[in-house]
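Mods, move this if it's the wrong board.
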Amino acid sequence: MDWYPRSRDEQIHLVETWLLVFTAKAALWGIPQNIITSLSAALTAAKEKLTVVKSGERTTASVVACNEVFKELETEARFLKKHYLLLPPLVLADLPALLLPLPDQIHTPIGTPTGQPVISVTYPGGPHVLKAHLAPLAGTEPPDSRGDYGFAVYKGVMPQGGATVEQAAGVRHYLMKEPLSGDELLHYRFTRRKMELVDFAAEESGMTAFFCARYENQKGGYGSWGPVASAVIP
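Not the wrong board. Structure tokens:
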């Protein structure tokens, strides 16, 4: 099982707990102050954006902004754990204080994810924003939950009539034709959420967005591609 909580309130509680523990342990564990400062700043931003989303001021833009700061918080937390919360210098007795699970002493091999996810796209309201919903393809089952899997989501954008060679070679890699599978989509995003708001550039309104996903586990193992979904960017 993944150590990082799925609930946003639990994510905030985890990082707040870490920062409290670090006041006494950071030097012993060799955690630089700039790393702690960066984590603290990400926590502050996440709490501020979550307060707005939970209030009567909630808008599509505020939800998108909240999603982004929580992704940044997760990135900061995962980086810190990977590089500084190791055994050693930590000992097993340190893990519960950090709200981290004790390591599983029984190895259970987990294979490559099976099944296929499907994406459906809706319009949440607001300019150049789409909502992607992820679910198991009808007739298939999600992978073994012990494999700590998520969704590898790929997207691409095609101008009306297809991109020029220059547009296809540019930073955004616009599509010259409709993709047949996820192999043709270059923009990657990993998520464990079953719904993602995707904000496009203003100049991409009227273009067609394509999405395709496959399951991915924590070891980088992939399942099969699901079907390609598309929608015109508002």
